[in-house]
Amino acid sequence: MQTLIQDISEDTKDIKQIMQLQFFDDLTEGDIRKTKWLLCGDGKRFRGYVDMIDIIKNYEIALKEIENGMSAYELLSAEGSVAKRENNEEFYSNVTANAVVLKDKRHTNYLFYKTITNIVRAVVNNIRDPHEGLVAKLLFLDGMKYLKAQEYMEKGYRKDIYPIAATTFAEKRRKAIANIANGLMINGTLDFVIIDYGRGRNKGGEIGLQLPNIKE
After folding, report:
1. Best CA proximity match to 55, nearest among 183, 182, 209, 191
2. How much is the pTM?
């Protein structure tokens, strides 16, 4: 499981501000937190969507290399592997950037990440407000830094979308997250994002993806 290493107080404040802007009765703060993790990770070791995209691309490159004659052992030595932890009931998988999934259940991991990223991308692209949609694309799909994305929106590089101020940018980001969270809640995607408050976890709990049950 990928640990959420983030300033909990800052994250909590952001989540509460997002909740104030959303109009969906069933949406909870936990749903917002899960959505933020899927979109941008913990802001340090894991970058959410963009890191899962890297894993998918690396896996596909690895398959091509194997077909071209490089052994799985050579690939693992060159690229590293995705660390994982299993228990009797659940299977959790770390989502680590620039790792190639080439161990047990590797293809299941690949299909799972591909499904999750396809859903996230579709929900983002379905945002109706043009500013919210562009903000979400820049920050979450493209992985652009906050200040750089804010400057992009202030400069108005897109002729079809008028420029917005920094304060408006911040509000559009929060509204976009709320809308994305609602979409991911409705389609069931957030059910696969787990916050574990068990013994040995940090105060804020550890957050990660829970893969579907895998039959041996």
Report:
1. 209
2. 0.77
Per residue in 119-149, pLDDT (tens digit) is: 999 999 999 999 999 999 999 999 999 999 9
Structure tokens at 81: 């592997």
Domain ranges, ordered by start, for the chain: 8-209
Give the model confidence (pLDDT) of 4-38 as tens digits. 334 556 778 888 888 887 667 788 999 999 999 99
Rounded to a whole number of angstroms, the CA Rg of the chain reads: 18
DSSP state letters, 127-181 = --SHHHHHHHIIIIIS---HHHHHHHHHHT--TTS----HHHHHHHHHHHHHHHH
Give me the residues paired with residue 93 across strands: 84
Q: Tell me, what amino acid is at 78?
A: A
Please give the C-alpha separations between residue 68 and each of 63, 71, 101, 107, in angstroms, as whole numbers: 9, 9, 18, 19
Question: Bridge partners of 208?
Answer: 194
Which amino acid, residue 164? Answer: I
Q: What is the pLDDT of residue 117?
A: 97
* Mean pLDDT of the chain, nearest integer: 80
